[in-house]
Amino acid sequence: MIISPWWLLLVPLLCIGVKSSICSCDTLRGDCGRNTNSGIVPCFIIFIILVSVSTYSVYNDAGIYIFNFNNLPDELVWKDVTRHSWGENPGFYMFQLALKDFVSTDVFVFKLVSAIIIQFGILEFYRKYSCNLSLTLFTHIALGLYMFTVPAMKQSMAISIGLFAFTDLVNKRWLAAGLILLLAATIHPYIVMFLVIPFLNGDVWSKREMLILGTAVLLGFMFEKFVSIAINTTQSITGDSYELETFTESAGSNILRVLVYAIVPIMSYIYRNKINTQAGIYTKRCISLSVIPLAFYVIGSFGGANFFGRLANYFAPFEFVAFTYILSNIVPVRSRAIVKIFAIIFLTVFYYFLVRKSFA
Asked: Is the pLDDT of residue 181 over 80?
């Protein structure tokens, strides 16, 4: 019997969960930031585990990436790179060619280097902005974002690089943020959605967040017309081509996933006054951005669940940081431990059924 590495991940996942519930590092500093949970040695061990599982796992689109890598020319041809449109991911194409030309033609090396880039960027973001790295990583794994990073290599690499622009976007340092996002956009153009980050400033649950959710519900009821316009716009900008039937005839988002991604927005609304008083600028921005994944899942509940779920994943790291902060600092102290334990049990069960469904 072959045991899927995703089942094996349940062991460190449970360890992380127990540690985060019993030995969590709560902070009242009012902002995301480094703490004793983000030591170099634990981060390095976690990094090795995540990279190893990513490298040895092949499922879904990972096989297509391997096939395409094997069929690339062995030498870097610059004119081939310049012929690629934004929708053809010229940065990722150049990355593969350079890797094959200067490093190795072995597929294992390709997957290893890709996993290092992807996991390093995401883990560094968590290490820098999470007030409880253990709980954030637990959520990252349990809600399936880590599982997403294995087959969706282009999107995940773009997310990993794009996250380095977060500080610059919040502080509106346009040149630095623009250069980082430009690089990430050559790998996958949807990362330009991060340009919304500077505009969700101020307190949480401002009119902007309400407008985003209200628009999502409205677009859901106008789903077919909205998708038609979105397809035409996407094709003209990136060159990506989609069939309308792919969205209108496919299943909508699972209602349980919609509810799961509604937890942070609901909790942040309940505790909005305390958050606005206590939290710092980066924390508030992560909490405000947690509305966007929910908005995508609301639209996806009308159809095209896979596509809108992938869009939601671009903003999932912000939601996980926000979730950790609210559990560790905002929930009343007397009920904090119970709420954390309940959340860990619920997320573990969620991950169990996620794995069973994915590898049935």
From this structure: yes
Q: Which residues contact 58 (CB under 8 A, 6 or more apart)?
A: 66
- Angle, helices 153-162/305-313, rounded to nearest 10 degrees: 30
Say how far residue 119 (Cα) sits from the centre of its chain: 11
Determine the Cα–Cα distance for residues 64 and 263; give it in Å rounded to an integer.
35
270 in Cβ contact with 207 (< 8 Å): no
CA proximity to 157, closest of 82, 96, 92, 216 = 92
DSSP per position, 11-43: HHHHHHHHHHHHS-----SSS----GGG-HHHH
* Spatial CA neighbour of 17 closest among 137, 109, 103: 137
Quote the pLDDT of residue 214: 81
pLDDT in tens, 231-258: 666 666 555 666 655 555 556 678 888 8
pTM: 0.87
> Which DSSP string corresponds to 279-295?
--HHHHHHHHHTHHHHH
Query: Cα 177 vs. chain centroid, distance in angstroms?
Result: 18
CA–CA dist 4, 6 (Å, integer): 5
The counts of H helices and E strands in the chain are 23, 0
Backbone phi, psi, residue 164, to 5°: -70, -15
CA atoms of 53 and 147, how far apart (whole Å): 10
